[in-house]
Amino acid sequence: MEGLNEATVRLQSRAGSLILVIALGASGMALAQQAPDKLVRTVADDVLATLRQDPELRAGSQTKFAELLEQKVAPHFDFERMTRLAVGRGWRQATPEQQKALVEQFHNLLIRTYATAYTAYKDIAIDVKPLRMQPSDSDVQVRTEIKVPDGQPVGVDYSMYKSGSDWKIYDVAVEGVSLVTTYRSTFADEIRQGGIDGLIKSLQTKNTLPASGTKKQQ
Question: What is the pTM of this model?
Answer without folding.
Answer: 0.80
